[in-house]
Design brief:
10 helices; 4-stranded antiparallel beta sheet; 291 residues; Rossmann fold; binds S-adenosylmethionine; 21% strand
Length: 291
């Protein structure tokens, strides 16, 4: 991870946090949660604390396993790291819209999209891994996300016949934001190169199938600028899309304008990076485009 020292200003806090387990968190599911949800949650987890930027998210003590509670099985909450709830907040799906979640399994963001849409409209939840579709289906069912249709395409080959109001590309990535805790090792340049090409092609497809004026959100859970700002910057150079500023209260840093001899430009200050020490959670990168 030393390669990221020049872009992470509070390096010691970052390094220390990466040695710890993430703080477990749950996202209340308004489609299923009872009125007295918070009371019920506090019965199981008296120390649960509401996140200060997302009122549906609760942080739990590091020792707890929220996947074992009845509230999980009933779909009243979804177990999701706090930072992972940002991309859908940025996507901002509205009831009645048609939304594509291009890389969706196991469904954390799909179920969040359906709940934000109050189960009105359509969510197409796609993943190319048939193995991962089982957990995607199970999570959609458990959370009562009734407006979701599941498809099994390579995202790059989704037919262009349907047009969407919003598309989320929560891309396959080198996962350094999660792996840091296990190995504290950066990904290999070979892996980054291969992924950056795939990520760009997925994004190209998203621009093709979003309506004129529609929104595309690109997110990863890696620190590598090659998979983040470089992909976004190439899209700005080659496609007829604009980057929109992400206006959020969440503790974060802005995207980087350059790294290791690569130039990405000032526009990157519209994108957001969350590091593990910001929320005691996974690292992520988010960018929002308008076609
Ligand atoms: C970061 S994970 C998605 C996590 C998911 N959005 C969530 O919030 O639960 C990336 C997903 O991309 C899928 N994937 C990889 N290559 C793909 C491709 N070419 N087309 C569509 N999905 C792909 C993987 O199977 C994986 O499930």
């Amino acid at each position: 991870m030393e390669r990221y020292k020049p872009i992470i200003d509070d390096w010691e806090a970052f390094r220390e946090e990466c040695q710890k387990d993430a703080v477990p968190a749950v996202r209340r599911n308004p489609l299923k949660a009872r009125k007295s949800f918070e009371q019920a949650l506090k019965k199981d987890f008296p120390e649960a604390e509401k996140s200060d930027w997302n009122s549906d998210v609760y942080r739990l003590p590091r020792s707890k396993s929220p996947g074992k509670s009845m509230l999980h099985w009933r779909g009243e909450y979804y177990v999701q790291e706090e930072s992972a709830s940002l991309p859908v907040e940025v996507l901002d799906p509205r009831p009645g819209e048609k939304v594509l979640d291009m890389c969706a399994a196991p469904g954390g963001k799909t179920t969040q999209i359906a709940s934000k849409m109050d189960n009105r409209g359509l969510v197409v939840s796609n993943d190319d891994s048939s193995r991962r579709l089982k957990s995607l289906h199970a999570n959609i069912y458990r959370t009562g996300s009734a407006i979701v249709d599941v498809t099994n395409y390579d995202g790059r080959r989704i037919p262009g016949t349907e047009k969407f109001d919003r598309v989320l590309v929560d891309a396959p990535c080198s996962g350094e934001g999660n792996n840091a805790r296990r190995s504290f090792e950066a990904s290999s340049s070979h892996e980054r190169e291969h992924l950056a090409e795939l990520q760009y092609q997925l994004l190209e497809k998203a621009f093709q199938i979003v309506k004129e004026g529609g929104v595309v959100v690109y997110s990863t859970c890696t620190f590598a600028p090659e998979e983040n700002e470089a992909v976004v910057s190439k899209a700005l150079d080659e496609k007829d899309v604009k980057l929109e500023d992400i206006d959020t209260d969440v503790e974060s840093r802005r995207g980087v304008e350059n790294f290791s001899g690569l130039e990405f430009g000032e526009e990157m200050s519209k994108t957001v990076r969350i590091y593990p020490h910001h929320l005691n959670s996974g690292g992520i990168f988010v960018a929002r485009f308008r076609k």
